[in-house]
Amino acid sequence: MPIIKSAKKRVRVAAKATKRNVRTKRSLKSALKAFGRTKSGSDARKAQSALDTAAKKNLMHKNKAARKQRQLARAAKAAGVKPTAAAKKAAKAPAKKAPAKKPAAKKAPAKKK
After folding, report:
1. Could you tell me the CA-to-CA distances from 87 to 2, 19, 48, 52, 101 in Å, in that order?
2. Domain boundaries, the chain
3. 82 near 41, Cβ under 8 Å?
4. Is the predicted pLDDT of residue 27 greater than 90, yes or no?
């Protein structure tokens, strides 16, 4: 057990991070297994989301996560799983930009008499 105050804190922080990482890895594994069992569209979405989360939290390299997502999509396509309506909308509709507002015309300052 460390004696120095900062080392004690690092032990606490590392324990917290380990717990968080284990939870994320567990959810990733269960999502991938669920997709493997049922091959449904909702399970595919959950598995891809779990892969994104793992890559974002640096539990998995981003290229490995992309490769796994590609494999997942290929397996879903082979199983005949079609994307759900929400996934189709997201793929087809690009993000709309707010129209640019014109700057307000400046009024001439009142003349002093």
Report:
1. 50, 32, 12, 15, 32
2. 5-82
3. yes
4. yes
